[in-house]
Amino acid sequence: MRGNSVLTTLARWLGAFAAALALAGSFATEALAQQPLRIGFGMSLTGPLAGNGKAALIAMEIWKDDVNAKGGILGRKVEFVYYDDQTNPATVPGLYTKLLDVDKVDLVVSGYGTAVIAPAMPLMMQRNLMFMTLFGLNVNSKFNYDRYFQIMPAGPEPAIGWTRGFFEAAMGLNPKPKTIALVGADAEYPHLALEGARVHVKRLGLKVVYDKSYPPNTTDYSPIVRAIQATNPDLVYLASYPPDSAGMVRAVNEVGLKTRMFGGGLVGTQFAALKTALGPLLNGVVNYELYTPELSGKFPFLDAFLKKYQERAAKEGVDPLGFYLPPYAYAMMQVLDQAITATKGLDSGKLAEYIHTHTFDTFVGKVGFAKNGEWSEPRVMMVQYNGIKGNTIDQWKQPGVVTVLEPGPYKTGVVKAPYQDAKH
Amino acid sequence: MEASTALVVNAIIAGLLLGGFYAAVSLGISISFGMLDVVNIAHPAFIILGSYVAYIVNDRLGFDPILVSVVLSPLFFALGMALYRIYYLCFEKRGQESLRGLAFFFGILFITEVTLVLIFGVDYRLVTTAYSEVTWRAGDIDLPMRLFVPFLVSIAMVVALQLFLTHTFFGRAVLAVAQDQLALRLMGVNPVRVKERAFALSIATAGVAGAFLIVIQPVQPSIGREYIGLVFAVCVLGGMGSIWGTLIGALVLGIAESFTSTFFGPSWAPAVSFGLLLATLAFRPSGILGR
Amino acid sequence: MSNRNFAIVAFAVAIAFAAASQLVPNEYFFTAAYVVLQFVILATAWNILGGYTGYVNFGSAAFFAIGAYSTVMLYNAFKAPLLVMIVAGTLVAGLLGLGLGYLTLRLRGVFFAIASLALAVVLYTFVVNWDYVGGARGAYVLQPREVPFGLPRYIHLLYIVLVLEAAVALVVARTIEKSTIGRGLAAIRDDELAAECSGVPTLRLKIFSATVSGALMGMAGTTFPFYLSYIEPSSAFGLSYAVNSIAMPLIGGMMSWIGPLIGAVLLGTVQQLVQVTISSAWNLLIVGVLLVLFVTLAPNGIMGWVEAWRKRRSRR
């Protein structure tokens, strides 16, 4: 009796086990056919650029959810493998070698900013990988890599395309301005932007009466503004990062800067934090934007995306407007999606060739790439802030506080000059 | 670059205002390092902590940050007492303060900074006060309230501290501890208790200085590190253990930075300040008013 | 073990590591190991002035960065060969250590610490304003397309260079430790006044210690631009170098050459792991907490525990 029950129990267990194996096996073969498409990247989740990094990540995750809802790419579900690069270039080689050699992802894209894109370039070039990057200013000019792509709309000569709008608007002033003060932070983006500005200055025959930079941790900007005022410039071009953008705008208001046009390259006023903190202090400032509500309706689906983004961002404590990186981070993934689907695979050579030779329909419009991987045409907007009242955020969500000056197709008005009068 | 009088005068004023702020920031180090010989390089971390505390209350309840920080300074006082207790038990008692005490405070600096990052993130925080956008003008001379109000309160704090040290019993005990601990003990005063309270006072001043900082400029957790060198520079320049010295040192540094910014380019300003420090250390280590 | 034998063993181990690494298939090992080795050198170098002599240097980043930037200069000027750049960077950093030491070592230890911090700021400002090395915009230093010695990738060469540099640093540290100089330094650390009274040439020894320490830290930085291909001041002068070069010897034990090695390998590896597992804001928090814990509870570091345990065993 006992022996029988042992045998029967054993048989039962074996049977169950075999059945389980068979089931698992069938799942496995199914799973193999639907191996997820893993995209790897480093992103600034901590460190000075974390605000942007987190915003970009949200946009990319919204893209991932959208794409997976439609069945993935080439039938494969998209998954992300990402690490925090701490906005520190020193982490990048380690992170990307881990992604490629240990995690064995299918595709990599970059993190945000020149500082974390450049260190990854040698690795990409060694392995001949296609590299889609997020907002680095003119990285490829040093490497000349033909499989590098950049989603920032600065155009084939980034520093020049980035700064052109300010000068186009300035040259529309009557009488034409003659002198200019150039000022910026001691950091990579402002340096590059100012170099671009100098090209325009030379082209237009303007005279430079002030050309200095300041350290990023300056406490008081009024000595700088006063020194600029002492030269009585017609134009003041500022290239700055968020903390000094705020400091300079405040100092300019405190000192009562008198000039015909002020602004140009301030990073930070595109996000909610500075828009609300500075509020009416921004009136009259001319600056670049990548998106304003004046554009709503012109780019299909973008408005719906922004609403989705804004919901998630509010929950996660990230920039609630999403007018800067998020649409472009999404667009970057759209380009990849379309290229992979069209070439039916992940071969870097074919992908690179496809991206070079086609234009893509994205949330930010039709995107085409030049030979060096930058956009074939610049599409940075130059705007002037006006009519800002108080420090609320809702006024920024509708049209009305911004006049789009450049480029032509999106223009809604002309610049009000001089700056001290445009404040009201 | 033509040096018109207005430009020079404004540069001096800006330098003085900035110097007042630097004095508030360095006051604590003047006490903890100058008088108590405790190298608290985590001091800037407490300044930043003060900034964030002021920010939170200002954000939620709208009270003026400087007022808030003065009201909440007992909290920082208590924090300082606790910190000194640990420092004393682990280091001073064992005679290990030079190397390990330094490392200890370095670690505290980092822990505070990273904890703030984890809680608040790295976005810059600003406060808005009734006076942050007001500027008094007299002809070509500008006096921004954003700098002037902290300057006034800071001077008040310096004077108050100096009076406290010279005219109260406890204050004089602190001065005595700085001069000769053994003698103090022989007179029946517990030097550890005195040092504890004095150190707590230094941390309390850090909390108030933090409010000044966030009124003057936007704050994020890692900017504390930029002030480590500055606070020590001010104390060394002014002379260790002298409150007036700290004030003078701070004003000198503020004016030097302001002049460099205005006339030579702002990017040289930090080099000037620290160059001054290195020169002082090399040639007159006792500072301007030092003993 | 005599100095010569130790040196032989150290280099033999280094060569063994170098050869064995060729068996590792993935590149992640090299990129991570590079960082850990960098810290081994920095920690060992710091300890010569810190642990042996008792003077805390907060400006490790300055010496590290000057090594990196002298490489940038030579690269921009004449694309010098790697060995030349390494030697040059080491010498320049050594000179910096000499200068700083000469200016400030006549004062109390605390002033040296503050001066080292000030030095880092001054140097940072100079670099930021100097366009030839890229200033704030940063400089690109491109890895050569062809890897010398037939190695598969450039990072392998960097790894081997660092392994050898680490061996050099350890040999130098141990040689100093066991020599008369080392005993003089220990005397200074324990009681400078007494040492001076006993005839120890304290100033000369301190300056020597600062020079060697600085030189080795610079050596660690010389290959860094190639590792990243892009170097800019705020990351080259990053404060994490200063914290780690203090934390690692402290945790490992500051009395001998083994301590920094253990501390660097342990802490460095932990940091690399944390970087790719949990969020990295915790990375720095871990370093800070470990630093504080060790400094309060285990002042002699891991080697201190080992020594205490050995003593207890021998008593039984």
Describe this structure in words.
The complex is a heterotrimer of chains A (424), B (291) and C (316). Chain A folds into two domains: 37-155 and 300-367, 3-Layer(aba) Sandwich (Rossmann fold), CATH 3.40.50.2300; 158-297 and 379-422, 3-Layer(aba) Sandwich (Rossmann fold). The longest helix of chain A is centred in the N-terminal third of the chain and has 32 residues, at 2-33. In chain A, helix 7 (158-171) crosses helix 8. Chain A starts with a helix and ends with a helix. Chain A has a five-stranded parallel β-sheet, with helices on both faces. In chain A, strands 7-6-8-9 form a four-stranded parallel β-sheet, with helices on both faces. Helices cover 45% and strands 17% of the residues of chain A. Chain A is of the alpha/beta class. Chain B has 291 residues and is an all-alpha fold. Chain B has one domain (5-283). Chain B has helices at residues 5-35, 43-61, 65-92, 97-120, 145-167, 169-179, 181-186, 191-216, 224-238, 243-264, 269-283; strands at 135-138, 141-144. In chain B, strands 1-2 form a two-stranded antiparallel sheet. With 316 residues, chain C is mainly α. Chain C has one domain. Helix content of chain C is 75%, strand content 1%. The chains are: A alpha/beta (424), B mainly alpha (291), C mainly alpha (316). Chain B binds chain C through residues 33, 39, 41, 86, 90-91, 94, 96, 98-100, 102-104, 106-111, 113-115, 117-118, 225, 228-229, 232-233, 236, 267-268, 270-271, 274-275, 277-278, 281-282, 285, and chain C through 50, 54, 56, 58, 103-104, 107, 109-111, 113-115, 117-122, 124-126, 128-129, 239, 243, 246-247, 250, 254, 281-282, 284-285, 287-289, 291-292, 295-296, 299.
